[in-house]
Amino acid sequence: AMIPTLVMRVLTHVLLLVCGFFSFRAIESKATHDDTKWLTFWFVHSIFSLVNTIVKTACGFVDYSIPFYGEVYFVFLGVLAFGGGARALYRAVLRPLLLKYESRLDAGLESVPGKSGLMKAAADAEEKGYVAFKG
């Protein structure tokens, strides 16, 4: 790696904090397009993080054993956040998969034993048309 692993990890977290700040600004704005942009980013990022963790665990490797992993990951996050990558991945890959399996996913979520009251409250708020965080 050209940049030490610790430095790349710090830079990556700083980038995620910047994304968090832009998410805050989107939440506070009256426009909805920025909300959609940042919700899409965080959703795609969470899916990628899950897959990344599973692959790392299943394959038994760590990020510093792959040359330029930290740099590639950092650039990938930047493209997701600021280069339209999240929107493109969502539209091309995630949306078609989610639409195809939406009823199965809903059924799976409904069958979770001891579903938390928070999930029910969120569903109730959505049903009533409440907008979270918009005061």
Your description of this structure?
- The protein is mainly α and 135 residues long.
- It is 76% helix and 0% strand.
- It is built from five helices and no strands.
- It has helices at 5-28, 33-59, 69-82, 85-110, 117-128.
- The longest helix has 27 residues, at 33-59.
- 9% of the residues are buried.
- The mean pLDDT is 86.
Distance between the termini: 46 Å
Write down the overall geometry. Answer: globular
Q: Quaternary status of these chains?
A: single chain
Please give the count of helices: 5
The overall pLDDT, averaged over residues, is: 86
Secondary-structure-based class equals mainly alpha
Number of strands: 0
Low-pLDDT stretches are: none
How large is the share of residues in beta strands?
Answer: under 5%
SSE sequence, one letter per element: HHHHH
The main pleated sheet reads as:
none
What's the helical proportion of residues? Answer: over 70%
Rg, please? 18 Å
Q: What labels would you give this structure?
A:
single chain; 5 helices; globular
